[in-house]
Amino acid sequence: MLLKKQNLVEENLRELERVVMLKIVDQKWMDHIDNMDELKKGIGLRGYGQQDPVVQYRLEGTEMFDDMIEDIRMDVVKILLNIRKKEGPIERTETTKVTGASLEDTAINLVDGNISEKEGGMNKTVVNEGPKVGRNDPCPCGSGKKYKNCCGK
Fold first, then answer.
1. Which structural domain range is residue 105 located in?
2. CATH label of the domain that carries residue 48
3. Model-level pTM greater than 0.90?
4. What is d(CA 88, CA 95) in angstroms, rounded to the nearest whole number?
5. Which of these, 13, 7, 10, lies nearest to 107 by C-alpha position?
6. What is the C-alpha separation between 126 and 38, in angstroms, rounded?
């Protein structure tokens, strides 16, 4: 019985580590891609400073990647060390259905062994109730301009 509980706790901890790592890597990778786009936009100015833009892009990109890896390591360790176990009954549910809940909520639920779906279910599709406005029709906002030159941009 004790071995079974210990095995369940280890399994929950591995699942917790996996979820935390995936969420952080996903977030940091998207930030890194955005940062690389910004670097690409501004790297051409290095030519004015008598620096080869290609070499500078490679050097700064490598440095940014190394910083991203270090940030991932630090954030994972910080979150895993700050997790507190909730008291209560342990219920085993499907752990692959992780919703858009915050990382800390997901981590705490994984320590307990239960993951609940986010309240409210899926997002609802927005439906516009007004008539469809053509591109050359007057804008419905009342500016007097054509829709394509006002709100239709």
1. 2-127
2. 1.10.3060
3. no
4. 18
5. 13
6. 32
